[in-house]
Amino acid sequence: MRGTLLCVCVGSVLGITSPALGDVVTDWNQALLGAVASNGTPPPAAARAMAMTHLALFDAVNAIDQSHTPYRWSGGAAAGTSKQAAAASAAHGVMTHLFGANASFDALRDAHLAAIPDGPGKANGIALGQAVGADMISARTGDGSTAPSGYTPGSSPGQWRPTPPNFPNPALPQWANLTPFGMTSNSQFRPAPPPALNSAAYAQAWNEVREIGSATSATRTQEQTDIARVWVGGPGTSTPPGQWNEIASQIGQARGQTMEQNARMFALLGLAVADAGVVAWDCKYTYDLWRPITAIREGDTDGNPDTFAVPGWSPLLSPTPNHPTYVSGHSTFSSAAASMLALFLGTDNVTFTFTNNAEAPGVVRQFSSLSGAANEAGLSRIYGGIHFSFDNVAGLECGAALANWSFDRYLRPIPSPGAGVVLTMAALIAGRRRRPF
Predict the structure, then answer these.
(1) Pairing mode, if any, of strands 352-355 and 9-10?
(2) 4-8, 86-90, 218-222: segment of lowest average pLDDT
(3) Sheet holding 9-10, edge to edge
(4) C-alpha pair distances (Å), 256 with each of 200, 251, 291
(5) pTM of the model
(6) CB 384 within 8 A of CB 315
(7) Mean pLDDT to the nearest integer, 262-291
(8) What CATH topology corresponds to 173-414?
(9) Helices in 213-317 by DSSP H: which ranges?
(10) pLDDT: is 11 or 69 the higher one?
């Protein structure tokens, strides 16, 4: 595949902006990321919101010309139905369900609808979008996102337990059992277990993060510190999945994508990051491995001759996220997103700039590929002292596998009847040419 050179600049979204009246898809994506930031939505829940919103928006737009296989909505639409009205109504319905009634959502919907001439096309679009949005909400009701935890932290060596300084309760253990958006099961892409505590591989990763990830590290470079901070995506930002939505939005704008292309791109991306959250949380609460801060402070209890206790050790990034370490959510989200975007674009080679002024003022990261950015996002958690290297490697691998599997099965182009005839004739001609005389 040929590379595409696109220079885009990405920054953290901190709030919902006023109606922009640009592309209806990107306008609602911006509003979605603002809602995630202002509500402090955790990354897996943010990814679920992105999938619900953008898959509904895609189905509403796609129902009108039916150019691709739908995610859920298989019905058509009357001729002349407004795609803009359908998209705005679907997104508004889903986001109001997810985040509650919001004047900004209402204003954005009303602004888009006001730009559409009154008539059957507008009315049919509104009705279609409302129906598709309601269908998505119904489909995800009871998906396990609000299920009781059922998880109790352990205290044996290697088991995760709440971490200092605040010792918060475990985050979203029920996400391990969330109904997937596309996968056949939650364990479909579950990697092999992490290295045993008494293994050389574990000791190597332990010593690496102890040195480079310490708050007072003498080996971490300034660039590595910048990398750790620029990819944080903590509360009050669009979160790690949302960072990739920001990247996608700018790439789509630089390429001059149509509304239909944007709808499919964000729907595929939402599908990828939502199931990446399920994959990561399934791994986390299946393997239940302690975080580096616990592993290093209690290094004399793991039975490994090459580790030892370092009382008072603290990571660069604090507090440590309140869920088990294996696999890295950052790595899984980023690899799934980057792989899905590369598949959609037809190339991994995209040049862009990434910034995060909320958490790393003045830091500018340059990339020549999507996979390069995903790899850096994964490494950032090791530099930050909150993940082991094997957390990163496994997360990158299962995220990429998930994206490749999903892209081959969802929202696929539907060849037109004429295209089918052309392809059939071409195959027949090629077959005849291959026959021996």
Answers:
(1) parallel
(2) 4-8
(3) 9-10, 352-355, 364-367
(4) 50, 9, 43
(5) 0.93
(6) yes
(7) 99
(8) Vanadium-containing Chloroperoxidase; domain 2 (1.10.606)
(9) 222-230, 239-255, 259-287, 292-297
(10) 69
Local confidence band at 427 (pLDDT 50, 70, 90 cut-offs): very low
The C-alpha atoms of residue 195 and residue 215 are separated, in whole angstroms, by 25
> How big is the chain, counted in residues?
437
For the segment 140-199, what is each residue's pLDDT rounded down to a tens digit?
999 999 999 999 999 999 999 999 999 999 999 999 999 999 999 999 999 999 999 999
Decide the pairing of beta strands 364-367 and 352-355.
antiparallel
Element (H, E) at 342: helix 329-345
**Residue 366, phi-psi category: left (phi > 0), alpha (psi -120 to 50), beta (remainder):** beta
Q: Are 17 and 31 in contact (CB under 8 A)?
A: yes
Q: Give the start-to-end residue ranges of the domains of the chain.
A: 24-140, 173-414
Beta carbons within 10 angstroms of residue 413's beta carbon: 10
Mean pLDDT value of segment 16-38: 85
Closest to 46 measured CA to CA, from 221, 210, 235, 305: 235
All residues at 6 or more sequence positions from 265 whose CB lies less than 8 Å from its CB, including other chains: 248, 252, 257, 341, 344
Structure tokens at 261: 């292309």
